[in-house]
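Lecture notes, part 5. Sequence design as translation. It can be helpful to think of inverse folding as translation between two languages: the language of shapes and the language of residues. The source text, in structure tokens, appears below.
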């Protein structure tokens, strides 16, 4: 391959990757705009309105937390059915998700930790591996990514 062909081929590859990344970014942007909108309508609204302040004071994964979720089952069933970033939305759980779902889910987990005074994304990743049965490889990716959002996520500004 001569220099001219190599440069042309490489530039085409760079453009193709850039285009595909922009498609991915547009999918994530759409999710950022529509995330959890179902909570603003029935049957979710009244239940989440009442339970969200209660959940804030609980430790994620505690027996008290799990009992609260059980009481919210009607809203949660509807929420999971209408929001594909939850493993419960998919017949195959987390294995049925795509990368956009996974990224939205991870950001949702991080934002949820900001609602709890003892919220901790590392503990959430550990607990969610048991809850959803994901691989050690995916767990490592989550752990590697946790610090990426840390400078941008504060209890005062998000969650």
């Amino acid at each position: 391959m001569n220099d001219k062909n190599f440069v042309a081929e490489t530039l085409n590859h760079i453009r193709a990757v850039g285009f595909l990344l922009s498609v991915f970014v547009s999918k994530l942007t759409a999710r950022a705009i529509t995330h959890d909108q179902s909570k603003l309508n029935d049957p979710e609204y009244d239940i989440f309105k009442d339970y969200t302040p209660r959940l804030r004071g609980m430790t994620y994964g505690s027996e008290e937390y799990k009992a609260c979720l059980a009481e919210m089952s009607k809203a949660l069933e509807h929420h999971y059915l209408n929001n594909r970033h939850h493993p419960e939305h998919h017949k195959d759980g987390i294995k049925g998700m795509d990368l956009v779902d996974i990224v939205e889910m991870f950001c949702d987990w991080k934002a949820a930790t900001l609602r709890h005074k003892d919220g901790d994304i590392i503990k959430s990743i550990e607990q969610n591996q048991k809850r959803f049965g994901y691989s050690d490889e995916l767990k490592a990716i989550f752990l590697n990514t946790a610090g990426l959002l840390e400078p941008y996520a504060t209890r005062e500004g998000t969650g």
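The translated text above is only one of many valid answers, since several sequences can fold into similar shapes. The CA atoms of residues 20 and 26 lie 10 Å apart.
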